[in-house]
Specification:
This protein is of the alpha/beta class and 289 residues long. It contains eight helices and 15 strands. A hairpin with a 2-residue loop joins strand 13 and strand 14.
């Protein structure tokens, strides 16, 4: 019996839904999911999705409960588990920063005092960071709402993740350093067998086909024969337009080309200027290069 590739992904939030939708768009043919689903299989039983906390995903891979997982690069660094990062995505972007109360007259981390009290959800990263600075810091692990801890008198400084900095500012905190940048990554265990590696490679190819098609449009148009060379100048496509003769019409051809979504307006305008017609623009679900 074929082995199932087990995929761990966050159990809630926008990131969870985004990854789930991406996998569906890649053709995994998933069974129906509701908010209480802990795991679901694809209808062909090639893949299984396991829904867990994003922070726990490296541990699930380390214990061999899952084979691959989607989580944040910041979490992978924090967990210090030996995993392979095999793909990085453009969503889930954030920065891990050092922030202090606005009233502290400090602009550089080197000026922070010793015996600093630090609150964070990333204690391993925080300890290494302050050790490298030569600061004696007391690091306390806080799971959630880290930004409120200075105003409660719990700490002098926080290490937290932020995408816009708005939450920190609303809690009267200012950023004085950035430790790392993070986004969603796909990670795997190092000991996957050949069968699972083959399934993983197929999955990555399918994901890439969806992501590559995201900002592309498929354009078709009828073009006068004597204008074909002009078309190639402003519509190169992936390599060059596909050109085909029209049935019983020696003077016109039909072109098929993939263009960036933000180039469609100009492409149509240029096509009309050279006598193009029958223009059709279609969305692309997947594009395999």
């Amino acid at each position: 019996m074929s082995e199932i590739l087990k995929i761990a992904l966050p159990n809630k939030g926008r990131l969870s839904q985004k990854i789930y939708d991406l996998l569906n768009s890649a053709g995994l043919n998933l069974e129906a999911k509701d908010e209480r689903s802990l795991k679901i299989n694809t209808k062909d039983n090639k893949f299984q999705l396991i829904f867990v906390r994003a922070a726990d995903i490296p541990n699930f891979l380390d214990s061999k409960v899952a084979d691959i997982g989607f989580t944040g690069r910041d979490i992978v660094v924090e967990k210090e588990i030996d995993l392979d990062v095999i793909k990085e995505f453009s969503f889930g972007k954030c920065d891990m920063v050092v922030a202090i109360p606005e009233e502290m007259n400090i602009e550089n981390v080197k000026d922070l005092p010793n015996n600093l009290r630090v609150a964070t959800s990333f204690p391993n990263i925080a300890k290494k960071y302050f050790e490298k600075l030569g600061k004696n810091a007391k690091v306390s692990e806080i799971m959630g709402a880290v930004e409120i801890t200075p105003s409660l008198g719990f700490c002098d400084c926080v290490i937290d993740i932020t995408s816009t900095g708005t939450t920190l500012k609303s809690n009267r905190l200012k950023i004085i350093d950035k430790i790392l940048s993070s986004s969603t990554v796909l990670v795997k265990r190092k000991d996957l067998d050949e069968e699972k590696i083959a399934k993983l490679n197929s999955l990555i190819r399918a994901l890439d086909s969806v992501l590559d098609a995201k900002d592309k449009k498929y354009l078709m148009a009828h073009i006068p024969k004597d204008k074909l060379e002009e078309v190639k100048k402003f519509l190169p496509g992936l390599s060059s337009p596909t050109v085909m003769p029209l049935y019983n019409d020696e003077n016109n051809f039909v072109i098929h080309v993939v263009v960036d979504s933000d180039e469609v307006f100009d492409a149509i305008d240029n096509l009309k200027k050279i006598g193009g017609g029958g223009i059709l623009v279609l969305s692309i679900n997947q594009m395999v290069k």
